[in-house]
Amino acid sequence: MTTTPDTRPENRVLIFDTTLRDGEQSPGATMTHAEKLEIAELLDEMGVDIIEAGFPIASEGDFKAVSEIAKQSKNATICGLARANYKDIDRCWEAVRHAKSPRIHTFIGTSPLHRAIPNLTKDEMAQRIHDTVTHARNLCDNVQWSPMDATRTEWDYLARVVEIAIKAGATTINIPDTVGYTAPMESAQLIRRLIAEVPGADEIIFATHCHNDLGMATANALAAVEGGARQIECTINGLGERAGNTALEEVVMALKVRHDILPWDTGIDTRKIMNISRRVATVSGFPVQFNKAIVGKNAFAHESGIHQDGMLKNAETFEIMRPEDVGLNATNIVLGKHSGRAALRSKLKELGFELADNQLNDVFVRFKELADRKKEVYDDDLIALVRQNEAVSDRLRLKSLKVICGTEGPQHAAMTLTIDDEEKSVDATGDGPVDATFNAIKALFPHEARLQLYQVAAVTEGTDAQATVSVRLEEDGRIATGQSADTDTVVASAKAYINAVNRLLVRREKTAPNADVKGVGYLDAGE
Ligand code: KIV
Ligand code: ZN
């Protein structure tokens, strides 16, 4: 890779995290209000410069989340998204204005395909950009503007509208590769050319926002930095629409590990990466793939004899960063059945969980049960235990489950659920123990949701390992993913399904069927 001398005044790249906005737009990645606040706090603590907290006009829930994140944030700039209309922008300002440092982010699709949808001529769209950015800037000193699908917008038109947005007062211009279409050399070149040719470009910050449809999002973002971008938009675990976005952990670690050829600094405390990655995986219901860079379960695992031998002699033979650099413990075996409450509290703290006394008591009881069943309790087991304790919603809870299975079908599931504080029981049959269990849930809480995904993975090794189960449900275009872990795979399956139903109920309150705000119309918000 060739490097270009950095012509900008400083070597600092701003990290703009959009897990709570673009990430939450992934089908099924709905987070509850409390979860969004918690993720925002973790992002703030790890040193993210700008947190895009949501899309305030999208729903009452999004508005509340952005407002409260704005109030709670200690260091980060808090940003909200708005389409190119006054109503969106006003609503966004109402939410972010509570922040110490607020930002309005307004956007419009500028490529031919996107211009055709609101049916605006180039001139009409240019006028709309001028008016909406001016309006935003009259409300807030810090305005970001994005030409959506910039990488498929004609060069002349892109340069023209970027200039208009700068003149109207935008302080950051974000260049989105909305459909993950660009490639590293082109990504660098586009930013370089905008900086060189658009009047006023040297007075604002250029940002890069890359989707991962061709698996090049991180490379494209880093190339854009080479071209002069000084803000990277990204998400934890690369969460986001379709194939996702640039992953925060990947760009940050690439800038750290290859500082020799990527000489830009971020303000991120990389030791907090593992914890937030695990947390986002849980609350979004999107487990991290085992071989994912930096945060995957296998990212620091060494299987072959040659690798293990090399690692024992010198870890640098097969590791380009230390596990501790991303907050992973060197040793993973932890507590046993003789461990006490204090040891558990201290271990959980190390893993990023600070529990109130009553929560710790619950987890302690469950830890003892697990330690009786399992020889060794690993960090991942403890994390699964804590997360299992966090109910998304109280509407449905599993009280008891007894399953009869074996070679003689049909299998039976006797289940008791607490639904809205009332206990209900049923005996259901099915084609296998999991099918019988899911049939029992459907009999007790009838619903039309369709099972889209059922996935089982072992948390640790061995036949006594806990199973983590993910369940994805779809109802009227709304998608919700639930997760749970237990040494009993069928119990984990029941809890994961119930978790998904609870999330679906939250989503029902949040959106009308099929009401994905991104597709509602780029401009109109009833004005
Ligand atoms: O991908 C995209 O274009 C976006 C914009 C709203 C910035 O997410
Ligand atoms: Zn995006």
Automatic annotation (TrEMBL):
Catalytic activity: 3-methyl-2-oxobutanoate + acetyl-CoA + H2O = (2S)-2-isopropylmalate + CoA + H(+)
Keywords tagged on the record: Acyltransferase, Amino-acid biosynthesis, Branched-chain amino acid biosynthesis, Cytoplasm, Leucine biosynthesis, Manganese, Metal-binding, Transferase
InterPro entries, A to Z: 2-IPM_HCS-like, 2-isopropylmalate_synth_dimer, AIPM/Hcit_synth_CS, Aldolase_TIM, LeuA/HCS_post-cat, LeuA_allosteric_dom_sf, LeuA_bact_synth, PYR_CT
Protein name: 2-isopropylmalate synthase
Listed EC numbers: 2.3.3.13
Example of a GO biological process term: L-leucine biosynthetic process
Organism annotation: Limimaricola soesokkakensis
GO molecular function: 2-isopropylmalate synthase activity; acetyl-CoA C-acetyltransferase activity; manganese ion binding
One GO CC term on file: cytosol
Quaternary assembly: Homodimer.
Protein family: Belongs to the alpha-IPM synthase/homocitrate synthase family. LeuA type 1 subfamily.
